[in-house]
Specification:
This protein is of the alpha/beta class and about 230 residues long. It folds into 2 domains: about 5-125, Rossmann fold; about 130-225, Winged helix-like DNA-binding domain superfamily/Winged helix DNA-binding domain (Arc Repressor Mutant, subunit A, Orthogonal Bundle). It is built from 8 helices and 12 strands. It has helices at about 10-25, 35-45, 60-65, 85-90, 105-130, 155-170, 175-185, 195-210, and strands spanning about 5-10, 30, 50-55, 75-80, 95-100, 130-135, 135-140, 145-150, 150, 175, 215, 220-225. The longest helix has 24 residues, at about 105-130. It holds the Pfam family Response_reg. Keywords: DNA-binding, Phosphoprotein, Transcription, Transcription regulation, Two-component regulatory system.
Length: about 230
């Protein structure tokens, strides 16, 4: 079955060119010209991947990411901005990769193929070990769900994957660079500080008791614990 890709951009010429190139590669393609229309198409089309422009009228790409945060869909962010902070914001809202305008269509297609390979790898890894339990905390890989004291935790996709990686391999010490590679899967533009930021958020959400599942190895990085 062909992978389904949703193209979202307010520039019709770009949408037309991307749709043509993706269809030529064998993908099933949907399109939208702003964030509001994209949400409607997303609900019906159910894409595997979204190529998402950030700067759009009415409802921009950041707003769209917030709306679908936690969904199992790969997001390739397209931005005309070159500032690192803009790219970091999109990635921390759930985007998985980014490309800057103007771009070569061959580079975009290569990133699409890379994203699909990572999705396939992630699914296979999830099939091997679908859930992790630590006391009243349960992580279910298949639907990226975290449950603490019978309540769903509101984790971003990256927060979930980071916590899952640490707890799936208890007592393994990870450097920040290793965690970037495991969770973000690319040379991340924001640097290793984003790992610390995500760890801080996870600890706050886990609370006083369960924050101890994440241990700081000073001068190196972090490790997950098998128990509290």
């Amino acid at each position: 079955m062909a992978r389904k890709i949703l193209v979202v951009d307010d520039e019709k010429s770009i949408v037309k060119a991307l749709c043509y190139a993706l269809k030529k590669e064998g993908y099933e393609v949907g399109k939208a010209f702003d964030g509001i229309e994209a949400l409607k198409v997303y609900e019906v089309f159910k894409p595997d991947m979204i190529i998402l422009d950030i700067m759009m009228p009415r409802f921009n790409g950041y707003d769209f990411c917030k709306k679908i945060m936690g969904e199992k869909v790969w997001i390739l962010m397209v931005t005309a901005k070159t500032d690192v902070i803009d790219k970091v914001l999109g990635l921390e809202l759930g985007a998985d990769d980014y490309i800057t305008k103007p771009f070569d269509i061959r580079e975009l297609l290569a990133r699409v193929k890379s994203g699909i390979r990572r999705m396939d790898k992630s699914m296979k890894e999830g099939q091997r070990n679908t859930s992790i339990r630590r006391g009243e905390l349960e992580l279910i890989y298949e639907n990226r769900q975290a449950i603490l004291r019978n309540e769903d935790m509101e984790l971003t996709p990256k927060e979930f994957l980071l916590l899952y990686e640490l707890l799936a391999n208890p007592n393994k010490v990870y450097s920040r660079d290793e965690l970037l590679d495991k969770v973000w899967g690319m040379e991340y533009v924001g640097g290793t500080r984003t790992v610390d930021t995500h760890i801080q958020r996870l600890r706050r959400k886990l609370g006083k008791k369960y924050e101890k599942l994440i241990y700081t190895v000073h001068g190196v990085g972090y490790k997950g614990r098998a128990d509290i």
